[in-house]
Design goal:
The complex is a heterodimer. By secondary structure, chain A is mainly alpha-helical. Chain A has helices at residues 3-29, 35-53. Chain A starts with a helix and ends in a 10-residue tail after the last helix. The model of chain A has no long low-confidence stretch (mean pLDDT 84). Chain B is 68% helix and 6% strand. Chain B contains 15 helices and six strands. Chain B has helices spanning 5-44, 47-80, 83-117, 124-153, 170-174, 179-208, 212-247, 249-256, 291-297, 318-347, 355-363, 367-383, 394-397, 403-434, 461-464; strands at 158-161, 164-167, 269-276, 281-288, 386-388, 392-393. In chain B, the strands form three sheets. In chain B, strands 1-2 form a two-stranded antiparallel sheet. The radius of gyration of chain B is 24 Å and the shape is globular. Chain B starts with a helix and ends in a 6-residue tail after the last helix. Residues 441-446 and 455-470 of chain B have low confidence and may be disordered. The chains are: A mainly alpha, B mainly alpha. At the A-B interface, helix 1 and helix 2 of A face helix 7 and helix 10 of B.
């Protein structure tokens, strides 16, 4: 059994999940569910983003 | 050939103001970026921040200078093309333009020299102060211009006597109903423009395998700022939308591409339309079903008001307004998508190594400028047929100038501005190709104003030696 297809599947699923979360945030922030929800989701998005910014990045592609 | 002076005056103003807005958008965005980067350099003493500062300082200086020159032209055009607007609205608009000069231009002029040439002549803290003052000056400038522009969109605090505006409440003129909404929207657009520009250039270096440390740091900074800013921007955009729906319903009716007083239910969200203004209908539409109801009425079956709610002689041209809005909003959606992608890639620690993402950043480098232009086309064409909304029609504001004069000056503007743009792009691309290490990376100064007054440059050969990149 090769680990690569599983890794690819995992990466694909996480990409889909990220896209869905992104669409949800976009619709929340533009006020589809009202102004209070827009403010809360904006604060949450920024807080999540700041947390992710702190993650160190690989300088070169991993083999 | 029989040319209409009103059309020529409008084309000329549209051309010069469209050209102008490109440069303040870049310089406002880069000024704030430079202030942040210099602050980070002072805090961390990491020479890479100074290298980033020196590199972007040159491009900022060019954008700033072209922005100032092309901005001055606009003031003269009020006289050349729209003298009747000046006669009527001068008492309200004139002081705001004068206050822009007094507050922002004087502030910028006082500190720009130190910012551009003082890195080796004054102390780092004073230099940082100068950079912050220039950034503040650009912010003040945007505030006054947005106040003046918002006043012609939503005039308040005046009465009209004998065809002239008489100010009754200055606070209402300056803090008019749309200013507090449009100002943060425009400032965020400028900061987004700077962020995508910075990230795009960094991504270009990473794709080419050059200046990697510089590229990584600028991609990281640029995408981080862009991620936060685009979320804030879509939030602010929705607030501006609501405000304009209240004060300029005709603009927002045109922006959504519906003609009928009430659209079908559920309403689609149109992306492409071919409007037929004369027959008050669309020849062709392409949109996403139901999305119009969700986004515009926040329900699954809501109806959207169309342009027939506004009498035909008070309607803007739908095509300009619709596509101005779609360009701005479409780019905002792509920016938001890239911001989410950047977060996902950061989470996976692949932000600097994912080539499709870096290519997308390069393509998106000028996206902020294009989106800003789209937004201004929405704002200005949506205000038509008024120059001061509800008070003065554009055709009544035009100067009694022969068409030949307007045509000849328009041709002159096109030629001169083509030279400006060519020079700007040529030098900007040259600076980008030469790379960040072409600029000295080490500032040396005593921290005293004394040296600022001495002509000696403290930038000897030893100080020119480049510091390690990271």
């Amino acid at each position: 059994m090769h680990p690569k297809p599983i890794a690819n599947l995992k990466s694909f699923c996480s990409a889909i999940l990220a896209t869905l979360i992104g669409i949800a945030f976009f619709n929340l922030v533009i006020g589809v569910f009202g102004l209070p929800a827009a403010i809360v989701s904006l604060v949450l998005f920024v807080a999540l983003a700041v947390m992710v910014f702190r993650r160190p990045q690989a300088a070169e592609p991993t083999p | 050939m029989n040319l209409d002076p009103a059309i020529l005056a409008r084309v000329q103003f549209a051309f010069t103001v469209s050209f102008h807005i490109i440069f303040p958008t870049i310089s406002i965005g880069l000024a704030m970026f430079l202030a942040i980067v210099e602050g980070l350099w002072l805090k961390t003493k990491d020479p890479l921040y100074l290298e980033i500062y020196r590199f972007w300082l040159g491009i900022f200086a060019m954008a700033f200078s072209v922005g100032v020159v092309t901005g001055i032209v606009l003031s003269f055009e009020f006289g050349l093309s729209f003298a009747r607007f000046g006669q009527m609205a001068g008492p309200a608009i004139g002081p705001m333009i004068a206050l822009e000069v007094l507050t922002s231009f004087f502030l910028e002029a006082g500190f720009l020299g130190i910012m551009l040439f003082g890195l080796h002549r004054v102390g780092p803290k004073l230099h940082f102060f100068a950079t912050c003052m220039v950034a503040l000056g650009t912010l003040f400038s945007a505030s006054w211009i947005l106040s003046a522009n918002s006043w012609i969109q939503t005039p308040d605090g005046i009465v009209v006597e004998n065809g002239h505006v008489v100010v009754t409440d200055w606070l209402k003129v300056i803090v008019n109903p749309s200013w507090l909404y449009r100002l943060p929207h425009m400032l965020t657009a400028a900061y987004l423009t700077g962020s995508f520009l910075v990230a795009g250039v960094g991504a270009w270096y990473l794709l080419r395998g050059e200046h990697k440390a510089f590229g990584r740091r600028t991609v990281s900074l640029g995408t981080a700022f862009a991620t936060v800013l685009i979320a804030v921007q879509v939030f602010l955009g929705d607030l501006v939308y609501g405000r304009m729906l209240q004060y300029q319903p005709s603009k927002m009716q045109a922006a959504e591409g519906f003609w009928d007083k009430q659209s079908e239910s559920p309403a689609p969200y149109y992306w492409i339309i071919v409007p037929d203004q004369q027959n008050q209908r669309n020849r062709f539409t392409l949109g996403i079903p139901v999305l119009g109801s969700i986004w515009l009425t926040h329900s699954l079956d809501g109806r959207v008001e169309g342009l027939k709610n506004t009498p035909p002689d008070r309607q803007p041209q739908m095509g300009w307004v619709f596509y101005g809005f779609r360009v701005m909003y479409g780019i905002a959606i792509i920016m938001f998508g890239l911001a989410v992608a950047s977060l996902w890639l950061r989470w996976q620690r692949r932000l600097f190594t994912t080539r499709w993402f870096l290519r997308a950043l390069v393509v998106m480098s000028p996206s902020g400028v294009v989106a800003t232009l789209g937004g201004w086309y929405l704002a200005e064409t949506g205000r038509q047929p008024w120059v001061i909304f509800g008070l003065l029609r554009t055709v009544d504001a035009v100067s009694p100038v022969p068409a030949s004069v307007l045509l000849s000056t328009l041709i002159a503007f096109v030629c001169i501005y083509a030279l400006f743009m060519t020079a700007f792009l040529l030098f900007a691309f040259r600076m980008i190709r030469r790379g960040p290490q072409a600029a000295p990376a080490q500032a040396e100064a005593s921290g005293s104003l004394k040296h600022a007054l001495q002509p000696r440059v403290k930038d000897d050969a030893a100080h020119r030696k480049l510091a390690p990149a990271e």
